[in-house]
Design goal:
single chain; mainly beta; Porin; about 10% helix
Length: about 190
């Protein structure tokens, strides 16, 4: 009887000493392919629409399913080249730096769906005839939808992949991205 009582006391103390930490912070870096969905009426046939893009995310994970975070990155939307005159070439580049507030939720083991909204800095570079013009526009109505598979290698390192769809309201530009991601849980 005494042995049973002692084993129950020892076992219950072991479980009490284990703490479950619900708050995590995660930093995620992603890189991969982006594709611009062409909405240009004129000159769309001369577009280069596929580029590499990078993203950086910071998540606060207060519960086991919910994550709140911020995302930024750099994405080139398109490059257009054309003949301005007989001996003058022109080139237009559009790139985006988004700053988004994200809400992400784990729906099943290692699978996450997310939505984000925020601002984006849109940069247009126009070059031709020895001249270069750079304009920057702040887009306020942007959103992102994402789906991710994130596999934990150990307690702190996670690897995965993510598919994202972006829409930038100011210019009505849309793109999608497929990225490989690496995350560190702090």
């Amino acid at each position: 009887m005494v042995l049973v009582f002692l084993s129950v006391v020892v076992y219950s103390q072991k479980n009490d000493s284990v703490t479950v930490r619900l708050n995590h912070y995660t930093v995620t870096v992603g890189a991969g392919w982006t594709h611009y969905i062409n909405n240009l009426q004129v000159g769309g046939e001369n577009l280069q629409k596929d580029f590499a893009g990078v993203s950086v995310k910071f998540f606060w994970e207060p519960e086991h399913r919910l994550s709140l975070g911020l995302e930024s990155g750099y994405y080139k939307l398109f490059r257009a080249k054309g003949q301005l005159t007989d001996n003058t070439l022109g080139q237009v580049d559009r790139s985006i730096i988004p700053i988004l507030f994200l809400i992400r939720m784990r729906i099943i083991e290692n699978m996450h769906l997310g939505i984000g909204t925020g601002i984006a800095l849109i940069t247009n570079k126009i070059a031709g005839g020895g001249q270069k013009v750079v304009t920057e526009t702040l887009s306020l109505s942007n959103f992102e939808l994402s789906g991710a598979y994130i596999y934990p290698l150990n307690k702190h390192l996670l690897l995965g992949g993510e598919v994202k769809l972006f829409h930038f309201g100011n210019t009505e530009d849309t793109m999608y991205s497929i990225q490989a991601t690496c995350a560190v849980r702090l």
